[in-house]
Amino acid sequence: MNGKFITFEGPDGAGKTSVMNRVIEVFNQEIGDQLLVTREPGGNKISEEIRKVILDRENTEMDYRTEALLYAAARRQHLVETILPALKQNKLVLCDRYVDSSVAYQGAGRQIGMAQVAKMNEFATEKLLPFKTIYFDIPVDVGLDRIAEHRDRSKIDRLDVETNEFHKRVHEGYMKVRDENADRFISIDATQPINRVVNDTIKIIHQIASEYFKES
């Protein structure tokens, strides 16, 4: 594969999706159809349908392992239908969440085992990992305060309404994943004003995927 796969990760309230939307505006002008932006769970029809089931606030009876399996299933479909074809076309692929989210949220947050969730996703992805992962770092309390203050109530999902203890476990899980993959993770201080976070993100991607921006 000739393309380059970069993921955005971070705990709830880190602002990574808002940052990604701003970054897309810039990159669409710079590299146009060489860019693919996608998300997890989702990214195509089947995976978006699975997303609805996972995040539906009414599905309170969902078993934690069922949740993890659904994420892995959505990820598999997303990979084969969306990500891999784009990489084969030499595109720069930016993805909002990937395997690291499952390891942090289901493995650590749900306490079903980080190693077990990682193994499950190795099967789903055939061990494909991103070239680099940009991690938007923010303290748990700050992130949750942002959600409470700014997010549209209609957009708050099943994971957003979990306990503070759950979100603390997720953050600790992310820290462990980051430490174990220090060569892949690039951290950004997400407590900064959004313009600065956006500028930092653009600068990093320009550096790690410079071949796409030579003529821009």
Automatic annotation (TrEMBL):
An example GO biological process term is: dTTP biosynthetic process
Q: What Gene3D superfamilies does the record point to?
A: P-loop containing nucleotide triphosphate hydrolases
Keyword set includes Nucleotide-binding = yes
Indicate the segments forming the Thymidylate kinase-like domain, all copies: 8-200
* UniProt cross-references to PROSITE patterns, sorted A to Z: THYMIDYLATE_KINASE
Q: What is this protein called?
A: Thymidylate kinase
Q: Which SUPFAM superfamilies match?
A: P-loop containing nucleoside triphosphate hydrolases (SSF52540)
- Family annotation (HAMAP family): Thymidylate_kinase (MF_00165)
PANTHER family assigned to the protein according to its UniProt record, in alphabetical order = THYMIDYLATE KINASE, UMP-CMP KINASE 2, MITOCHONDRIAL
Q: Which InterPro entries match?
A: P-loop_NTPase, Thymidylate_kin-like_dom, Thymidylate_kin_CS, Thymidylate_kinase
Tell me what organism the protein belongs to: Lentilactobacillus buchneri DSM 20057
Free-text function comment from the UniProt entry: Phosphorylation of dTMP to form dTDP in both de novo and salvage pathways of dTTP synthesis.
